[in-house]
Design a protein that fits this description.
This protein is of the alpha/beta class. It has helices at residues 17-23, 47-56, 68-79, 97-111, 126-141, 146-159, 180-188, 211-226, 241-254, 267-273, and strands at 5-10, 26-28, 31-34, 37-40, 61-64, 84-89, 116-121, 161-165, 192-198, 201-208, 231-237, 257-264, 278-284. The strands form three sheets. A six-stranded mixed β-sheet has the order 10-9-8-13-11-12, sandwiched between helices. Helix 4 (97-111) links the parallel strand 6 and strand 7 (116-121). The two termini are 30 Å apart.
């Protein structure tokens, strides 16, 4: 039977391939530029390969949003198998992807006036965005209507929390938020920033000197918010699979997880945070 709603998102959502396949999601890749070549994130290049390029020559590494044409093609494909389309993007305050998705929606509706397309600004990014998409995909899989899925996504958006730990502050200057000299001083002092996403932007929420103490603080924040309630969790690592695995195991042993998955932290975001970043997104029922 033809599903009611097809789900489209972007590669910044850090969705694991198993989840993409299980729910037949359309993932529009962000473009990675390196030494004159353009790679589609997750299609032409893996996260591991992208991080190797970033380590090799960060000055030659850049990214650009997916184009209107790429979103339009995703809408065409998704529309061939569903009555409606719901497209999720990372925060419109962090990227122009939301605008690209909306412009493509207008073109798609000209092609197929009877097709309904909605674009949803998640107000977050990385695994925070991924958990919202996961909730929507699960609802779509059991036949929920477009309006019902949007209601579910809004509810999750209102509860989602993202906490991350950078291995170093050295690369944050690439965002333009702090001077390069300040980042270098912080790196020399071995400061590891804790960050969150709120109000649609990335914010510094603390500083620590070690990965262990930083993640302990992150898990304590989780405990204060969710306690023993059932919780949905996603963990991402920036090319540090063992650290990601340890963190996932710690969460599984300390929390009542009804959803828990481990994935790669988007190398597009990793450009600013650096290799070794760990991030946790969660919300409770």
């Amino acid at each position: 039977m033809k599903p009611k709603v097809a789900i489209v998102t972007d590669s910044i959502a850090c969705l694991p391939p198993e989840l993409v396949g299980q729910y037949q999601l359309w993932v529009v890749p962000v473009n990675i530029h390196f030494n004159g070549r353009v790679y589609r994130d997750g299609l032409d290049i893996t996260a591991e390969e992208a991080y190797r390029l970033l380590e090799e020559a960060p000055g030659h590494f850049a990214s650009s949003p997916a184009s209107i044409v790429e979103y339009l093609e995703a809408y065409r494909q998704a529309g061939a198998r569903a009555d409606s389309i719901l497209c999720f993007t990372l925060s419109s305050r962090l990227s122009t992807l939301y605008n690209m998705a909306r412009l493509a929606k207008k073109e798609a509706e000209k092609e197929s006036p009877r097709r309904t397309i909605k674009v949803f600004d998640t107000g977050t990014a990385a695994v925070g965005e991924g958990l919202i998409v996961s909730a929507a995909a699960q609802a779509a899989a059991v036949g929920k209507s477009l309006a019902e899925i949007i209601k579910i996504a809004r509810a999750v958006k209102s509860k989602i929390r993202v906490i991350g730990l950078m291995e170093t502050i050295r690369h944050v200057y690439r965002t333009g938020r702090i001077p390069k000299f300040t980042a270098q001083i912080g790196s020399f002092l071995r400061i590891k920033p804790l960050f969150g996403i709120s109000g649609g932007i990335v914010r510094l929420i603390g500083l620590t000197r070690s990965q262990e103490s930083g993640m302990k603080r992150a898990l304590n924040m989780m405990k204060r918010e969710v306690g023993s309630k059932p919780v949905h969790v996603a963990v991402a690592h920036a090319n540090e699979p063992e650290a990601g695995k340890r963190l996932t195991e710690d969460i599984a042993s300390q929390f009542n997880c009804v959803e828990l998955w481990l994935t790669n932290f988007s190398p597009v975001m990793g450009y600013a945070t650096g290799k070794g970043t760990l991030a946790v997104a969660f919300y409770s029922n």
